[in-house]
Every structure is written in C-alpha cells, then in structure tokens.
Amino acid sequence: MSIDSGRAGGPVIEVSGLHKYFGDNEVLKGIDFHVDRGQVVCVIGPSGSGKSTLLRCVNQLEAATSGSILVEGIDVCDPETDLDEVRSRIGMVFQSFNLFPHMTVMRNLCIAQQRVRGRNKAQAVEVARANLAKVGLAGKEDAYPAHLSGGQQQRVAIARALSMDPDMMLFDEPTSALDPELVGDVLAVMKNLASEGMTMMVVTHEMGFAREVGDKLVFMDDGVIVEEGIPSEVLANPQHERTQAFLAKVL
Ligand code: ADP
Ligand code: MG
After folding, report:
1. ABC transporter domain: from which residue to which, for each copy (predicted)?
2. Which domains does the chain have, with CATH numbers?
3. Which of 27, 54, 124, 167 yields a CA-CA distance of 20 to 30 A from 48?
C-alpha cells in the first residue's frame, strides 16, 4: 500500500447526506456518492435534476445546506477549511469554456499558474506549452479565443485547468455547447486524460463516452441518485423506471 503524501487510499471525493436548498427549493435531497482515485465517474440525468449543483458543491462554488463533502479527506463544508487551497487541487471545465477573451491562449494558461502556483513566467510558459501539445493545440499560443473554434476553446480550457496540476478534474457538460463535428476532439482529450489515471467527475450527455471511458455511471433525477453502476450495465439494463424513461429518450 502506498503512503505517498498521506492522500493515497480512500475516496478522492466523498459526499454523504448532501442536501442543498435554493430558498425553499430543495435541489439536492440527500446525495451519497464517492469518487476513488483514478476513477472516471459520469453523471447523467434530465435538465434541472441537480447535476451542476452537485458538481459545484464539491468545490463549494455552491455552499451545501447540510451533509458532508470530503475532498481528499478535507471537509470543504467546515468554515475553517482553506477553500482556496482545496480548489487549487480541483480542475473545473464548464460548458461555456470561460476563457479570458482579451488574453491570448498562452496568457490564459499562464495567469493562474503565476498568481496561484507562484511560478515565474518561464516556468509557466513551459507547463503551458506541454499542456497545449497534450490537447493537440501546439502552435496556438498567440491566438485569441475568438479566433478559435468552440472545440479548440474547450481544449484550451482543459489545458488551462491541467496547467495547475490538479489532483482531479470536474467537467460540467464540456461538449454540450459544441457543434457536433467538434465534440469528438474534446472527448478524445478527456479519454486520454482518463487513460493517464486522472480522477474525473463528468456530467455529460455523451453516452458513448460514459460507456467507453466511465468506471461508474450515476443517474440523477429530481435531486436524488436514482441508480448507479457500471456504465455498460446501467445503459443496457437500467433497473429503475425513471432511468429507463430517461435513457429511452436520449439513446
Ligand atoms: P442540472 O445541472 O441537472 O440541469 P442544476 O443543478 O443546474 O441542474 O439545477 C437544479 C435546480 O436548481 C433547478 O431547478 C435550478 O433551477 C435550480 N438552481 C440552480 N442554480 C440555482 C441558483 N443559483 N439559484 C436558484 N436556483 C438554482
Ligand atoms: Mg447543469
């Protein structure tokens, strides 16, 4: 058994009894869920079922109403926790890319490395170049986001997250805003990342990706996890009526 840095063993993300209200609206109704190191967990479910809220609670972009969320053993709901430190271990990729439009690709990749990781410019540029190559965008250093396709922008966003050396990556519908012909390149980058052992939580409608790359598939509906299991099994043989109804619409 490995004891490196005290982080090995046990789940990377462990959510227990999570409830989240927006006003009177109970959006997460008691979620229990974990992601182990190196695992790829895909989350599916209808619009409004609470997938994004669950993801956002993990790094406390949304505060949980009750329950506990441990990230590498650290309770992110504890007011004493240094959230900036925990967040710096978590790479997040959104549907809408969220690049800085007035900065070149290189500047987008370097700014947080320099400000948060304390790297000097040369170090940051080296890490950025390696990650741009990894997402298939070597040579785009000086481009501005508006001059890239949506798929390229999303790959820049992934490279930017990776440049912070995260322990895990959270993806919220990373391909949902893309034209269909651009989806494959982004999924290929994510698949490659998974094969390198990155711990990943992926909200997606890409059932092919979930089946091929996911270790676990979680189906959410109306603020609860209705069903979870091995992706190929859940997709081929959903046990719950609500899962069956959802899959009948999307497959
Ligand atoms: P999903 O990602 O599965 O589509 P969300 O987590 O985005 O679902 O939303 C779940 C529910 O929470 C929806 O009813 C949505 O309207 C509500 N909700 C999400 N974010 C907020 C917010 N910031 N304020 C109020 N209600 C919200
Ligand atoms: Mg969402």
Report:
1. 13-247
2. 13-248 (3.40.50.300)
3. 167
Q: Which amino acid is at 52?
A: S
Q: Whose CA is nearest to atom 15 of ligand 1?
A: 48
Return the closest-CA partner of residue 194 out of 33, 44, 39.
39
- 240 CA → ligand 1 middle, Å: 23
Residues 6+ apart with CB under 8 A from 14: 33, 34, 35, 68, 69, 70
Q: Identify the pLDDT of residue 251.
A: 82
Ligand whose nearest atom lies closest to the CA of 20: 1
- Taking the centre of ligand 1 as the mean of its atom positions, its distance from the CA of residue 48, in whole angstroms, is 6
As given in the structure block, the two tokens for residue 24 are: 């009177």
Q: Specify the ligand 1 atom closest to the Cα of 220.
A: 3
**Ranges of H-type helices in the chain:** 51-58, 83-87, 105-115, 121-134, 150-162, 180-195, 207-213, 231-236, 241-250
Which residue stretches of the chain have pLDDT < 70?
1-10
Residues whose beta carbons lie less than 5 angstroms from ion ligand 2? 51-52
